[in-house]
Specification:
globular; 5 helices
Length: about 140
């Protein structure tokens, strides 16, 4: 099982647990600050391979290389621009379970996230429910 996560964050996780799509070592300051480390702590011990991508182009480039099956995609959406970019490339996610963690609260934007057909829309502050959904998806 592998997890592919789109999350632009200011923190680099423990490299023994997670890799990045582009192999970069610096991260830009984003609203999801600290979320990357929370994701590694929540899922790393249970899942063997976690890959992080910082941008939508990196994520789509990652789909051009073979992935372990089954794969779960976790999208940390930090704004309207990211959401619109993801909607434009949603065909890449066809057949892959998607979990969305928005880092903002806008009713219109949350409505648009449903076009990505997520299995769950979570909360970055409390990853317990996200971990439960992920455990359910990995048990199949």
């Amino acid at each position: 099982m592998s997890i592919l996560i789109l999350c632009a964050d200011g923190d680099t996780p423990d490299s023994s647990v997670a890799n990045t799509c582009a192999g970069q070592e610096k991260w830009g300051e984003q609203p999801a600050k600290g979320l990357r480390e929370k994701l590694v702590k929540a899922f790393g011990p249970k899942i063997g391979n976690i890959e992080f991508c910082d941008t939508v182009p990196q994520l789509t480039a990652r789909f051009h290389r073979p992935m372990a099956a089954p794969t779960v995609l976790i999208l940390v959406i930090d704004g309207q621009d990211t959401l619109e970019s993801l909607i434009s490339v949603r065909d890449f996610f066809d057949g892959i379970p998607v979990i969305i963690i928005p880092t903002f609260e806008s009713p219109q934007t949350l409505r648009q996230t449903y076009t990505l057909c997520p299995r769950y829309i979570g909360n970055g502050d409390n990853l317990i429910h996200v971990a439960a959904v992920l455990a359910n998806l990995t048990a199949r």
